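Notes on consecutive records. When two proteins share a document, each keeps its own sequence and its own token line. Never mix them. Below: protein one.
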Amino acid sequence: MAANMYRVGDYVFFENSSSNPFLIRRIEELNKTVNGNVEAKCVCFYRRRDISSSLIALADKHAREVEEEMENTELQDLSENERHQLKHRELFLSRQLESLPATHIRGKCSVTLLNETELLLSYLEREDTFFYSLVYDPQLKTLLADKGEIRIGPQYQADITDLLNEGEEDGRDQSKMEAKIWDGDTPLTDKQIDQFLVVARSVGTFARALDCSSSVRQPSLHMS
């Protein structure tokens, strides 16, 4: 088996049973424990087989709503076999974290938020590629749309106001607009700003040094 390098942010397969499909996780931390082993703290993704039939029906309803909203007829052109394969590529993101032995990693994969402008077949054409659009709560047993979803279409675009002419007053109440937190016209010199940044970074380094964790965080993991 060829050597692999795993880093924080990678999507990977984990093996927890020889009779079940690989788990799909995103590595959040790689920690070396006191006994020398490496554990991966991961974000959990769930497959359709992991959630109840009532939630699967809810996921199917959401998929139909997205299709109608985007006026996407591609699903109608898919064969039954392609529809079946596509369901196996769908995952459900969760906010749940778990720690797993790094020795159980079985390779990398790709997981992306469903792109409504991309052809669904593109997920089938790429090996080990999965998508998600809903967030699953394993405690509450709920499915919700991911807040990171990008909405496309004229109904989701901002209305741009007309450009003010030179000398023309803006009639809006500026006190109700956003608060200004930075002014480029500052009396501080570049040297003073650099000194502040150095102090800020030093405080952060000192705080991390005081965090006496029982494990050592690793930037990456090399496995063969």
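Protein two starts on the next line and is unrelated to protein one.
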Amino acid sequence: MPMKHTAASSTTTASLLKSTAADTETATKQKIVPPIPSNTGSNNNDLLLNLANEFIYTSSGFYSPADPSVFSEDFVFRGPYIGPLNKKDYLTTMETFQIYKGLPDISPNAFGFSIDPNNQNRVWFLVRNTGTFTGQIGLGFGQFISGKGQQVQGCPETFSITFDDHNNVKLLTVGYVADRFEGNTGGKGAAIGIFNVIGLPVPSPGPLYSFITWFSNNILDSPAKSCSRKEDVPKWWQHEDRGADGYS
């Protein structure tokens, strides 16, 4: 039986629509969209953004030979699997692998440089590694693996560089994957992703990985470290997790 519309029901419906419109207008007025934070306009911001870009292409030890002079003496490196590493252990590890020789055309293809609004000395950015494995990558103890032309197409990774008061690199974080479905590295970043492509897959975080890294660091005393000895990590680094602890 069809519903009869009365004047009263029409008035009620109109009132509800009017009330809903008013509520929507109020909510819209209350939700103020802030402006996008600007990275420019400050000489110091411009300097740090350019220093970060220059460092990652020319001085990191991964994409090119390391320049020890740009690293702070209390430098710390941290990635999802590797770290914390102090300056000495980081530089030795990079020199052992020599990724930039194994993939002579390696590039971070860095983009999206931004100053951290909570830390004006920290620069965030993304990389999407590419390169061709035509050289040799070091494994330590005089051992190398030779390339067969494998192409690396990395997934987007989040990096950050924190500078000290002298504009030296105090903290470098790498390898935190933003989209694991891109590229051919199996959703892994940094050296772990490259190793996946060239046929040296690293075990996922867990007991096996923990044992391998412990054995390598403490028994074999490999020059390539997964983390520095706890007493050798700069005191300002307060986080207790080591290697892949807490990461999956």
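For the record: The radius of gyration is 25 Å.
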